[in-house]
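Any chance you'd type out a single protein's sequence alongside its tokenized fold?
>
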Amino acid sequence: MGCCVMRRKRQKKKNFIIFSVICFFLLFFISSAYSLLKQDVVVSGKARIMSEQISGGDFIENVVDQDDGLIVDDDGSSHFVGNSDSVVNNFIRIPGDSYLWRILSIDALGNIKIIRNRDDSLESMFMENKNSPYDWAGSLVLANLKTWYQNNLSNLNDIIVQNPEWLLTEASKNGGPTNVTILSTFTNSPIGLIRNDEVLDSSGGTSSGNSVSSWLNDGYQWTMTAVARKNSQAWRMNGDKFMNSGVSTSSVYRPVIILKSSTTFSGGTGTEDDPFNVS
């Protein structure tokens, strides 16, 4: 009888020790998991995947090596800068689009302005008639942009700024295409085009006459900058050269949109082979 009691006591003691060890490891696992959730998880060779919600712009700036061409302006905004021969790691992929986009800038609030890679199927005159004056709000190119947006990006309305402030600018043919003046603003569209001054910003502010060497250079493409005192003309790029073109001229247009600062990313380092991936 005494032996049975002793065995039961030893068994209870053994069970208690096993239970205590299990509890210790369980508490250790929970505390470790909580610690990981409170920190950034770093994937080797990839982007930093944030465990807590941060600005989409902050995500990108945390990943990009500043030597890759990202610069910060006095107002807190950032621009990707590099000449046509530079490797600029600002590629971004958005859901449902087979074409990559490039990041133009990140504003002080973390919103991300992006431009789509060249697509030769997107071609338009600026205005429908060669005698029509430049008018962004009533332009054919804006109508085509809006139609393309509705057919391709409207499912992403939650992450795209719907009524941003698009600056309407002009540059004089005689004064130089990079001497840009702001005329007004336009807010009735989630989509637009690049401006002459943004092309200049992407080159680091360097130009030679009508030429600007930038990672943005890619054949003929419209800008949304008007030609001053030539009300039936608009500026477009031809590779690295600004050209004043008649509004009835047909040229490629590259859509520009602005992603909200709340946009989240699943990873990527910004290279063409490993772009930033919008979740």
